[in-house]
Amino acid sequence: MSSLPSTVEPYWRDSVPLPSFPRLDEDVSVDVAVVGGGISGLTTAYLLATQGARVALLEADRLLNGTTGHTTAKITAQHDLVYDEFLNHFGAEKTRLYYDACMDALGFIRRTVEQHRIDCDFCEQDAYIYTTSSSSFQKLVKEWEAYERLGIDGAFVESIPLPLPVKAAVVMKQQAQFHPLKYLVNLVDAITKAGGAIYEYTPVADIEQGERLSVVTRDKKRVECDHVAVCSHFPFYDGGFYFSRMYAERSYVLGVTTAEPYPGGMYLSADDPKRSIRSAAANGETLILIGGENHKTGQGVPTMRHYEALSSFASQLFTVKDIRYRWSAQDLTTLDKVPYIGPMTADAPNIYVATGYRKWGMTNGTAAGMLLSDLILGRDNPYRDLYSPSRFYADPSVKQFFTTNLDVAKHLLTGKIEPAVRRPQDLARGEGAVVSVNGKRAGAYKDEAGTLHVVDTTCTHMGCELEWNSGDRTWDCPCHGSRFSIDGNVVEGPAKQPLKRLELDESP
């Protein structure tokens, strides 16, 4: 079995030079402030700026360094086994709208690629959900019946092009894949050419409401505007208690080269643990992306085991020559599995949110940009009610709300009573763990030079105790998905404040 790369780096970011932009160092006034430099924020800013709006886009880190830069980049309306479930919960009209919104997003990406002649490896692929287990067979039958009822272009098949012993599969025709960063870099260029301003390393701390809105950065700079689009993955400004209405999951990807040619297509298992498969063009070679192994953030087995499981699966499926890349991503799931896109609350109609894409950010993020730009420009959009953040369906929302928040309560209590017996000094180089410092729970990582990085493991969001993520070398919150670096800096919200760094008492 090939060895795993020592560093965590997505192929997308490693293969494209990205432009850089300054941090915001003065107060500015625009029509619209867009917070977040992923596919949602960039699509929103692109559509607004190219239609004459004055736009400022603020990114806390580097552009495309978050979930968008760590995607598998399938552009598809086949979002796992959802259509039978949605029919039961929402009815045929809303379920068909969900499919149409995703296909409209795919069509938008296709048209934009053609219009700007973007070389981003865009190509149509059929998308398959398959099962190798008899226990999932009936689920696929029901999903295919939902396709037929909704008029979705697809088929029910008994085999797929991959060498897997499948029992059945549902295929959705004429979906697509691409290199997301090659595509989005062109949107960045179009934004700036249309007069839009982009600022990196500019974390936003708050939104103040008055005669106009004021977006206030952590450095106390202000962006005066009429509309704010919060596209920061987890909403940094949480006027609607979004932390209680979503949960965070992590998933993992390997980029491998193989001896066999790839047969085409995009694949997702209906069984657990999840397996996702697609190909990508990489410097004249075919890179096969093997993904899956989802689990709630901060919970489950040591995270390196997820990469190892994917490596084992890849070796069963192909003759693996080399594992070139490994990376992971974090995604948010809403109570009813449909994203929240639209006005954040009824009391703040000019503050918009886009979140909860459940691992399907290429279509949902594009649909978000299309919907938010229409709302801001005062245009009708057929998907406004479908994605409305203020919607609520008794089934499944009530059940999922209690399930999600009972899980939070369980981990909040468990973390507080979990004993920490190891000492920071006992760690090997390259190892991190929960340790005891002066009799209290703490987190320590010893780097390859032997330097210890010690932090308080109490999450700064709501006080849950963090767990060590060995695969990505981060401290992860099992309650709401916040993540922190080895030095305690915020990697992922909803937390805004860094962890407290601890000094060790070196006395005997």
Automatic annotation (TrEMBL):
**By its UniProt entry, which InterPro entries does this protein fall under?**
FAD-dep_OxRdtase, FAD/NAD-bd_sf, Rieske_2Fe-2S, Rieske_2Fe-2S_sf, Rieske_Fe-S_prot_C, YhfW_C
Q: Does the keyword Glycoprotein apply?
A: no
Domain Rieske, residue spans? 419-508
Gene3D superfamilies registered for this protein in UniProt: D-Amino Acid Oxidase, subunit A, domain 2, FAD/NAD(P)-binding domain, Rieske [2Fe-2S] iron-sulphur domain
The UniProt record lists the keyword Ribosomal protein: no
Taxonomically, the superkingdom here is Bacteria
Which of UniProt's keywords are assigned here? 2Fe-2S, Disulfide bond, Iron, Iron-sulfur, Metal-binding
Spell out the protein name for this chain: (2Fe-2S)-binding protein
Organism of this sequence: Geobacillus uzenensis
